[in-house]
Amino acid sequence: MSAWLVNPAHVAAIVRYAARQKYMTDLRADPDAQVATANMLHAENAASVNYRYPGHEAQEPHRFTEREIDRARALTPVELLKAIHCLDYQSCDHPGWKDSAACKFLLHLTHNAIADLPGYDAAPWGID
């Protein structure tokens, strides 16, 4: 398995999506929380890459700004889910990942974003 540091635009787009959803109330009205979340996600990604390749030059996480997140690409629900899977895959190599706030954030966002998929509301809850 290989790991790489994702582009800051990747992380900014994930956070932008989250900040515009009704279920992420802690991010919606707080640009500082959005920046902190983006910084946390990219730092965990860097920690994974650095753990995976200890003999290489250390990767430094990007420091985000409110403007970067506000201007990030708007993702569809499917694009968001794929971006989350990519970031999770690139961040999972270090031992602390599964218990990290970043991992928990992505898991929470994934579970909630599934309801944003077209057709989700119309699908039956129970199958007979």
Oligomer: single chain
Q: Give helix and strand order, one letter per element, not per position.
A: HHHHHH
Q: Tell me about the biggest sheet? A: none
Which value, in Å, is the CA radius of gyration? 15 Å
Taken together, the total number of domains comes to: 1
Describe this structure in words.
The protein is 55% helix and 0% strand. The protein has helices at residues 8-19, 25-28, 31-52, 66-70, 77-91, 101-113.
Short structural summary:
The protein has helices at 8-19, 25-28, 31-52, 66-70, 77-91, 101-113.
Structure characteristics:
single chain; 128 residues; mainly alpha
Question: Can you lay out the helices and strands and say which pair or pack?
Answer:
Blueprint: H1 8-19, H2 25-28, H3 31-52, H4 66-70, H5 77-91, H6 101-113
